[in-house]
Amino acid sequence: MNSIHKHEHCSLNSVQSILILMAVKKVQGILPRQRREAAKQNLRGQILAVSREIIAEEGFPALTMRKLAEKIGYSAASLYLHFRNRDEIASEVSRVGYADLLTALSSATGKARRDDPAARLRALATAYIQFGLENPQTYRLIFLGDTSYLQAVASRPDGDDPATRAYGLLIEVARDLITAGFAPPKGISRRPRAVTPTELAETLWAGMHGIVSLKLTCQQFPTASAEIMTHVMIETLLRGLEASQAG
DNA sequence: CTTGTCAGAACTCGGCTAAT
DNA sequence: ATTAGCCGAGTTCTGACAAG
């Protein structure tokens, strides 16, 4: 017995019957499609979650399609219904990694006084280095691995790009430092000019990245703790900038 | 009947190793 | 030093199956 016949036993007028029929059609037609889509999204999320787990525990090279499939209880072939290839999974995991980094940096700089760029730089550098050391496999994936994943994140059609936003946060701090008078010496060339926020930001990033990557890749060296290195790097840099301002 | 999902088989490729 | 064979990995093809 179909839905129409069921409703014929009720004392309903024709308009009500049509409305109910439409509702039934909606439940039959659209809701299952929504359910399927929800299930698909759910599985996609599960694939990404397990991928992150594998990368966090064993590193990116350990993320194989067969291992991933085994862990989620499907065949390797099924993974290709949800992702174009392994690179697309890696790009998506990278994007989540950048998003986590952005959250850490935003949270740290947000706690510092807005009108104190030196304090914001200290907070940002500390958070960055702490993130790298506490999430070594994620850091390796997004900054020490294949740079094409960064490009993939930056060129997403939906514009969801936490990598560029994190970079923008660093440039913002650099700009505030310059505005506040923390200007590096001009004159590395014959035609002196003021350093740009981008140049200062990239130099700062090189220092922070240097500490994290040395700590992750070289167990014996450096011997100084990351905490000491961060402190010395930032304070030396700030004093240098202040001195250049005075001179 | 159509559509979407799944798994098994097979293909291709790169890295490693033993034999020559 | 070179080559053949093996192995593991990513990917594709194809047919079975279930849901609508």
TrEMBL record:
Q: What is this protein called?
A: TetR family transcriptional regulator
Q: Does the keyword Transmembrane helix apply?
A: no
Which sections of the sequence are annotated for DNA binding? 64-83
Keyword DNA-binding on entry:
yes
Q: Which domain of life is it from?
A: Bacteria
All residue ranges annotated as the HTH tetR-type domain in the record:
41-101
Q: Which Pfam families match?
A: TetR_C_33 (PF13305), TetR_N (PF00440)
Single GO MF annotation: DNA-binding transcription factor activity
The UniProt keywords, alphabetically, are:
DNA-binding, Transcription, Transcription regulation
Any transmembrane segments, and where? none
